[in-house]
């Protein structure tokens, strides 16, 4: 019987014992060949496919690429809208609590949406939690426009931008959740 650790070679009583002199230096390093037919289940690093094709369905590949492209554009648009909210206090020359609210919330939206944009463009899945947070901040902008007594152009700018942010970030959160569900699906064939 052969010892898988190679101890039989050191003792000199296994197959191929005459090939090398027995030593007590420790295990012998033997080159091991990796099996080309091992499938990790992820499709990454599994070697060449027959015909060079990806085994995933072509429509799934197209849908995934379209989803990634849409969410990156939407994330970038939301980040720009957040920056607009922060800068709109300068355009409309506002001060006090409404201005502080718009600057803080606008910067938070711009940073969070920018982070999601960074994730998507670097092939890291979109974060549903961050997209949901941005959607909630958009809803807060809608509510705060009336709650903080904003008037004139700042009121309408904050209200409309809040609606856009809430809608677009909500869409991103929905897409991120859907993408995560597809990625973690156990493959039950449904």
Automatic annotation (TrEMBL):
Source organism superkingdom: Archaea
Residue spans of biased composition, Basic and acidic residues class: 1-13, 46-66
All residue ranges annotated as the SPW repeat-containing integral membrane domain in the record: 75-169
Pfam families: SPW
Annotated segments matching region Disordered: 1-66
Keyword Lyase tagged: no
Signal peptide range: none
Keywords linked to the UniProt accession: Membrane, Transmembrane, Transmembrane helix
Keyword Ligase among record annotations: no
Residues passing through the membrane, by range: 73-93, 99-118, 130-148, 154-174
Protein name per UniProt: SPW repeat-containing integral membrane domain-containing protein
